Amino acid sequence: MEKRQLINYSLYSSFISFAMIFGGCSNSESKSHKKALHVGHFVSVFEKKVKYKCDNKIAPLSNNNEFECNSFPISFYSDHIKLGEINSIHEDGYVFPQDIIEVEEPSAIYTSNKETIESLLP
Questions:
Q1: Which residues touch 84 (CB under 8 Å, ≥6 apart)?
Q2: Are 53 and 78 spatial neighbours (Cβ–Cβ below 8 Å)?
């Protein structure tokens, strides 16, 4: 009977060791594959509710204008009009309108048409 208990104890010990080893591997593996969560606060000057889009989802900002996404870019919308997007978040976590709105540089217009030139002058 004593030999049988020793064998059972060995089997239990082996099973527990096996479970701990493979359980530890799966936990570390899932942590390394987990995507980083990007959380920020959009400082809104817009009267209408702003939504954000990322990771194939569109959601309204929370009551405190917070958003969270797993990846960039993050786009912001108001009434289906794209306000702009970000590819990073400042260390303080705040996103201001000037961070998302892109101002295009005026392009030069080359023309020799007198009417076009006169229409461009103030």
A1: 75, 76, 97, 99, 100, 101, 102
A2: no
Q: Considering the entire predicted model, what is its pTM?
A: 0.56
> Could you count the other beta carbons within 10 Å of the beta carbon of residue 97?
15
Instruction: State whether the Cα torsion 52-79-56-102 is positive or negative.
Output: negative
Nearest CA to 86 out of 46, 50, 53 is that of 53
Q: Which pLDDT tens digit goes with each residue over 53-93? A: 999 999 999 999 999 999 999 999 988 889 999 999 999 99
- The domain limits of the chain are 1-34, 38-100
How far apart are the C-alpha atoms of 121 and 68, rounded to whole Å? 47
